[in-house]
Amino acid sequence: MPQPAVIAPAVIAVAGAAKAFGAVRALDGVDFAIRSGECVGLVGHNGAGKSTLVNVLNGGLTPDRGEIVAAGEARATYDVAVARGVGIRCVFQELSLCPNLTVAENVRVLREGSGGFGWRNRAAATVRESLDRIFPGHGISGHAGLGGLSIAQRQMVEIAIAFLDVGAPPRLVILDEPTSSLDARRGRELIAHVRRFCAGGGAVVFISHILSEVLEISDRVVVMKDGRVAADRPTAGLDARGLVSAMGSVARERAARRAQPARSGTPLLTHGSLAAWPGEIVGLAGLAGHGQSEALAALYLAASSGWRTGRDPRAAFVAGDRQVDGVFPLWSILWNTTTTVLPDMTRSGGFVDRAAEAAFGAEWRERLAIRAPGMDVPIVSLSGGNQQKALFARALGSRAPVVLMDDPMRGVDIGTKQDVYARIRTEADGGRTFLWYSTETDEVCLCDRVYVFREGKVAATLGGDEVTEENIIAASFGGGHA
């Protein structure tokens, strides 16, 4: 007689979880559970409640109502210490390690009882072993200062530490947009490690706006919308269109290639062998950390003669590492969006026209669907994707003829991405120039021309029909292009 299938126990389950922030109901009666050996994809638009649910699961937030069962026990008190004690780890979309410490010192902060003589070398060796397992050939020293690493390297370190035994072995690792700063190779290495971890009995919650990754890695997909679970389905039989539909958006076909604009005269911007003419969308590609961000920063500084905005700015900048180069965390959403246009709103005597400023904020809030109770609330109260929308508003709302974008779509939902793509094309058709670095090959393939970087230099230039994923990957690894 066949034996009944053994159902793995839930690592954590929440029932009827509700959480409000003032008038905003971030969670509205959410039921969620994940079992050992399972990878669950968690998707939804920015502001759907994903980050709030993650913070309930990791003990960072206490729900206003609802029950939490962790490691088979109902928890009257559930906080970060309890979550860590039962083996729950989290890699946040906004990276949370201490940039003023070394990699090894960050391990020490999280790992109780790991002191004693020689602890730095032991911690460095431990995190190096984890990095070697997940990201072979990473080139990161355990004694390196975290603040001196690129955002991709910091993300790799945070992922590696999450899979370490820091007081209790990891049973559930929550990965919130873990590949947002990683190139295609590092993303595939992480996916392979998640599979091994789950095959060994671990559990993973995988949050990403790259739906192909979610479908590839997950056993089950949970869709959130307006603070509720809108769908909970096995991955088998699902496709990207079905997921987008479940999130409440209309799935759109991939846009046709834009006709390349004619080039004449002197380019607007140059940097070594890189050049951009009016009306072009120029992509920067290649493996992460090979000089793309540095090239954008050099171009911006050359165009602006500093980071201040004048009445006639030559360039605007959209940062992907918004916590370092993007948002002003002590300011409101409105003030974060209007910094590039204040000279146009300043009356005689140096006073800002507050009515014009409010109108600008309201217009861009509607254009980019920034989910917020008002533009006067602090920008840090927004989800990461909505913070990024404010940075787009700051750049696109300016009169700068050139917009430089450093992997700007990190944590932005698919609907907003499509809207921004359309606006970029419209603005480029009107003569505006875009230089766009992205770790997502699909985004790079939307560009008119692409410079592929390798070891800090342009290794290949692709244009028109040459801009394909195969050619970009070949050039990234030194094989020329097909």
Automatic annotation (TrEMBL):
Pfam families: ABC_tran. This is Ribose transport system ATP-binding protein. Transmembrane segments: none annotated. GO terms for molecular function: ATP binding; ATP hydrolysis activity. InterPro entries: AAA+_ATPase (IPR003593), ABC_carbohydrate_import_ATPase (IPR050107), ABC_transporter-like_ATP-bd (IPR003439), ABC_transporter-like_CS (IPR017871), P-loop_NTPase (IPR027417). Coiled coil: none annotated. Residues 12-251, 251-480 form the ABC transporter domain. It comes from the Bacteria. Keywords: ATP-binding, Nucleotide-binding, Repeat, Sugar transport, Transport.
